[in-house]
Amino acid sequence: MIHVFTTGGTIDKIYHDANSEFAVGDSLLPELLTEANVTLPWRVTGLQRKDSLELTDVDRQQMRDAVAACPEERIIITHGTDTMAESADALDGIAGKTIVLFGAMQPARMRHSDAVFNLGFAVAAVGLLPPGVYVAMNGEVFEAGRVRKNLKAGRFERD
After folding, report:
1. Is the pLDDT of residue 71 over 90?
2. What residue ranges are annotated as transmembrane (predicted)?
3. Domain limits of the chain?
4. What is the pLDDT of residues 105-149, one digit of tens each?
5. What is the pLDDT of residue 109?
6. Are the C-beta atoms of 6 and 76 separated by less than 8 Å?
7. Residue 65 burial (CB count, 10 A)
């Protein structure tokens, strides 16, 4: 079984046309997993609904505690891209679990989004990688502690 924890981030953002701003909404992950016909058993638990720039050390500790306490060994975490590497570092060292963080550069609700691809890639990665903490984005896997977001290029790179 795969346990998916949602924390918010761009993947779950909703565009509010009235004020031309985005806000984090309900997660589309259950719908996306169903539409993708993921046949592995999975369950989704919401932890936070925040932009990753708003996540605190308390939020990261809540993530760590939830992952450590759950019985599943395969964990996927949706996360905003700006501080994904920091949260991966905070989760490092949880023994016996394969933990994959992923997100999207554009909200899943938008027509042109990398969300569905990144979700499929994260599902494949969590099933294939050995225990550890990883960031899976845009067809690449990075180990916790060895990844950073290149804001200018809009992609993740090895650190």
Report:
1. yes
2. 115-137
3. 2-158
4. 887 777 778 888 999 999 999 999 999 999 999 899 999 999 999
5. 73
6. no
7. 11
